[in-house]
Design a protein that fits this description.
With 339 residues, the protein is of the alpha/beta class. It contains 11 helices and 17 strands. The protein binds threonylcarbamoyladenylate and magnesium ion.
Length: 339
């Protein structure tokens, strides 16, 4: 099977593929998704097969608008309406109690479901046209960095799925934030909407799942099951270096030909390296747009190790830092400020 690239005037064809139980590469504002009709268990099963995804890792349900939650969720709290009014369509997924009409395979047997309304005109057009909820994990093979262009997804999925709808480069570039709203709000994944932005709208404090801060022993259960898997990793091992002088430290400790992910300000230090820039040090929006393509780039090179600078854990920088840390398997060198 050759994977076809569909363009924006082929939305009807894309919706038709989904309705008929086929898989589709779907552009969203965060990353490309590997989409299937969520109400068709065989179609959903093929997502797990094609991606090589463990079956205990549930999928997010993508909806055309907030009203659709009445179809698929129960016990919907006021906080959902407050937050979805502000952030949907957009890069945030809410965990709610699920209705029984969702096949078990979507939720990996959990009583809850993650719902999200994506902020991409083609994704919304496909959802409306197909008039079905769409289950979609990120469109990479399990463990690899998420795809932020149709071509990155094609690299992983060519020959495995019938079509990818090309919606251009993703404007956010990291996956959605995941927030469990069933009791007091619990953050399960850093993503496209920052904790600070959400907290500004809520009276209750958001709890951050300890697993996100590297304190797995304090987390009662892995609340977002996907967080326990190795993620986003290029073939060559990644080491993060943090500290005021991280760029010059990497330049003097790295070897000619190593891979480097650095902020734009420091590229001139790395003339003998394979360099991917992350944008300016304080420009988190740009870093989010670039981080996955930077990580994916190195798989097409012969580098045997990759050094990375890492943004501050602040606003959207927290999500970028988290993706880099996971790509590095939390391998990190912290420099004293006087080194
Ligand atoms: O931005 C995104 O969210 C992208 C685009 C395609 O929408 N999707 C995405 O899906 O990142 P995926 O499957 O790569 O990551 C979904 C995460 C996993 O860590 C999964 O464990 C968690 O969401 N998740 C899904 N349903 C859940 C549930 N009911 N309870 C807790 N965690 C859940
Ligand atoms: Mg993923």
């Amino acid at each position: 099977m050759n994977t076809q690239i569909l363009t924006e005037n082929q939305v009807d064809q894309a919706a038709d593929l989904l309705r008929k139980g086929n898989l589709l590469g779907l552009p969203t504002e965060t990353v490309y998704g590997l989409a299937a009709n969520a109400l068709n268990p065989q179609a959903v099963e093929s997502i797990f097969k094609v991606k090589g995804r463990p079956s205990d890792n549930p999928l997010i349900l993508h909806l055309a608008n907030p009203q659709w939650v009445h179809r698929y969720c129960i016990n919907i709290p006021d906080s959902f309406w407050l937050l979805s009014k502000e952030f949907w369509p957009g890069p945030i997924t809410f965990i709610l109690d699920r209705n029984q009409n969702i096949p078990d395979i979507v939720t990996a047997g959990l009583d809850t479901v993650g719902v999200r309304c994506p902020n991409h005109p083609l994704a919304l057009a496909v959802l409306e046209k197909a008039d079905i909820p769409v289950a979609a994990p990120s469109g990479n093979l399990s463990g690899k960095p998420s795809p932020t262009t149709a071509f990155a997804m094609y690299d992983d999925m060519n020959g495995k799925i019938p079509a990818i709808l090309d919606g251009g480069a993703c404007s956010v570039g990291v996956e959605s934030t995941i927030l469990d709203l069933r009791t007091t709000p619990v953050l399960l994944r850093f993503g496209g909407i920052s904790v600070e932005e959400i907290q500004a709208l809520l009276r209750e404090s958001i709890t951050i799942d300890p697993i996100l801060l590297g304190k797995e022993e304090e987390s009662s259960t892995p609340l977002a099951p996907g967080m326990k898997y190795r993620h986003y990793a290029p073939q060559a091992p990644v080491t993060i270096v943090v500290g005021k002088n991280s760029a010059s430290w990497i330049a003097s400790h790295g070897t000619k030909g190593d891979g480097v992910i650095c902020f734009e300000e420091y590229t001139s230090l790395f003339t003998h390296f394979e360099v991917q820039t992350l944008g300016k040090e304080t420009h988190f929006t740009e870093q989010a747009q670039l981080v996955f393509s930077a990580l994916r780039y190195f798989d097409g090179t012969t580098v045997s190790r990759i050094w990375a600078q890492c943004p501050k854990a602040e606003g959207l920088g927290t999500a970028v830092a988290n993706r880099l840390q996971k790509a590095a398997g939390f391998q990190m060198i912290t420099l004293e400020d006087n080194t």
